[in-house]
Specification:
Chain A: It comes from Deferribacter desulfuricans (strain DSM 14783 / JCM 11476 / NBRC 101012 / SSM1). The structure holds 2 protein chains of 2 kinds. Chain A is of the alpha/beta class. Chain A has helices at 14-24, 37-56, 70-82, 101-109, 130-136, 159-169, 188-191, 240-278, 305-314, 341-345, 350-353, 367-387; strands at 2-3, 64-67, 92-96, 116-120, 141-147, 172-176, 195-199, 210-214, 282-284, 295-300, 317-318, 356-360. A 3-stranded antiparallel beta sheet of chain B has the order 1-2-3. In chain B, α2 (64-77) crosses α5 (105-125) and α4 packs across α5. Classes of the chains: A alpha/beta, B alpha+beta.
């Protein structure tokens, strides 16, 4: 299997797995149990991981809170400030149209509690307008939450400029950096953000562990109460092996990102150029340059995305699609099938969204993988075009 | 190897669709779309003077389930009399495919609707009111119910 669905999760680095294993078997102490070595060992391992995660995003380790996933980090960031009495009276939240559901749905849920949400439009490349952002910020704006990179179309926002505007206007700024961290530089000082979410599974660490950066002075109400682990921000026994794995993944990313990112850009260019030459009815999505290193996304006229996905899968290539048909295969009802809100936001009509595909590569992909994808693509596309009632209408 | 969301039969019909294409001199053509996901199926039939579906072909824009449903539907109606073709339900298509995920049942409904649309076109071409198809369907439903 050639794995090109790395926005869904990367293959864990072997060194990460090795680092985790002892904490699954013999080093099983609860980090809250400080009075015997087994517990202290776990505690120290978590603190070491915290240092590595902080270092990856240029933060202090005291500002890192471990969570279970990117979704939880985003929920904690948004609801955490929304529910805090420190910000009473500030009932306006700004997000973009292309945020992950864990930001969109969290913000929208707050409208039931009297909050107002402004969704900023994006241009056809997926970029938020800085002017629109500036104009949207009001006296009662509590928070701006914008993702660093979009996993579906690969576009990287002008996040530093967005951070400057938020700082200048005195509003809190949350960055969902789940898709970008470990692939491009993520720096909380350069971003001028108050809150930032990252997830281990996106940079060669295990699933089920993530982190939230919380800047000093930001008041956050925890999502659930308990025994005050993670300085009270995230009560509950820590998932020690996973946190250790995330720490190791962060250490490796910090040391090696500059080595593998250029390679991934080369692979992206090769795949992009190869596909561009093949069909005049293939259209790329997202920003042509300002995008994730190993990320190529596009839609093909006449062809539905799930049938593309299946065809590639049968040829041993794993990818992703934003089509309605591929959106929720385990849904109980067709009403739950929904075309990608991201593609709709960048102006791809719903019926055309159906043909979208995303290849997202990792440090493990090689040139031969791209060669293979380029080799099998014409036959896949031609076969599906032949089946399409739209194709002859050209 | 972990099983995917589709049965082997669905995958077989997706990879090796039967009766895919167009019929130039078709005398029954139906095209239907599903607004839920944008799928479109176009069905071509050649019905002879005895009212038998001599040939049938399809073209589908859609997911694996839509293509497999289209392919299976053509297999199930080829060589049948028009009256019998109308007896084909979407449930029969699903059963013949060894099942579909709940969210994909609409693909089989689309195939059934494409057959109806093509037959309406057929009756219109031979100078009959296409509503006859609805009446025949209703009659079949009553028969089945009793």
């Amino acid at each position: 299997m050639i794995y090109m669905d790395n926005v869904a999760g990367t293959k864990p680095d072997k060194r990460v797995v090795e680092k985790m294993l002892p904490f699954i078997e013999e080093k099983y102490g609860n980090p809250s149990a400080h009075f015997y070595p087994l517990g202290r060992e776990s505690f120290e391992a978590i603190e070491e991981a915290r240092e590595h995660v902080a270092s990856l995003i240029n933060a202090k380790s005291d500002n890192i809170v471990f969570t279970s996933c990117g979704t939880e980090s985003n929920n904690l960031a948004i609801k955490g400030v929304a529910f805090n009495s420190e910000y009473e009276g500030k009932k306006h939240i700004i997000i973009s149209e292309i945020e992950h559901y864990s930001v969109q749905n969290t913000a929208l849920k707050l409208t039931n509690l009297g909050f107002e949400v402004t969704k900023l439009k994006v241009d056809e490349t997926g970029l938020v307008s800085l002017e629109d952002l500036r104009n949207a910020i009001r006296e009662d704006t509590l928070l701006v939450s914008i993702m660093h990179a979009n996993p579906e179309i690969g576009t990287i926002q002008d996040i530093e400029k967005i951070g400057e505007i938020c700082k200048e206007k005195g509003v809190l700024f949350h960055v969902d950096a789940v898709a970008s961290c470990g692939h491009v530089e993520v720096d909380v000082e350069k971003f001028k953000c108050d809150l930032l979410s990252i997830a281990s599974q996106n940079f060669y660490g295990p699933k089920g562990v993530a982190a939230l950066f919380i800047r000093d002075g930001v008041k956050l109400t925890p999502l659930f109460d308990g025994g005050f682990q993670e300085r009270g921000y995230r009560s509950g026994s820590e998932n020690v092996p996973a946190i250790v794995g995330m720490g190791e993944a962060a250490r490796i990313a910090k040391e090696e990102m500059h080595i593998y990112a250029p390679k991934m850009i080369q692979l992206r260019k090769k795949l992009w150029d190869g596909l561009a030459k093949m069909f005049d009815f293939l259209h790329f999505t997202g920003h042509p340059e300002q995008r994730l290193p190993g990320h190529v996304s596009f839609w093909i006229e006449y062809i539905e995305g799930e049938s593309l996905l299946l065809s590639y899968s049968l040829k041993g290539v794993a990818a992703a699609s934003g089509s309605a048909c591929s959106s929720n295969i385990l849904a109980e009802d067709e009403d739950e099938l929904e075309a990608s809100h991201v593609l709709t936001a960048v102006g791809v009509p719903n019926d055309i969204c159906a043909g979208s595909l995303t290849f997202s590569m990792s440090k493990y992909n090689e040139e031969k993988d791209v060669d293979y994808v380029l080799e099998i693509t014409p036959a896949i596309v031609n076969r599906l075009c032949e089946m399409s009632p739209y194709y002859n209408k050209k | 190897m972990a099983k995917g969301p589709y049965s082997e039969k669905v995958m077989d019909h997706f990879m090796n669709p039967r009766n895919m294409g167009e019929i130039e001199d078709a005398n029954a053509v139906g095209e239907v779309g599903n607004p839920a996901c944008g799928d479109v199926m176009k069905l071509y039939m050649k019905i002879n003077d005895e009212g038998i579906v001599e040939d049938v072909k399809f073209k589908t824009f859609g997911c694996g389930a839509a293509i497999a449903s289209s392919s299976m539907a053509t297999e199930l109606i080829k060589g049948k009399r028009v009256e019998d073709v109308l007896r084909l339900t979407n449930e029969a298509i699903v059963e013949a495919l060894d099942g579909l995920p709940p969210a994909k049942i609409h693909c089989s409904v689309m195939a059934e609707e494409a057959i109806e649309a093509a037959l309406k076109d057929y009756y219109q071409r031979i100078g009959k009111d296409p509503k006859i198809v609805d009446e025949m369907k209703e009659k079949i439903k009553t028969e089945i119910a009793s």
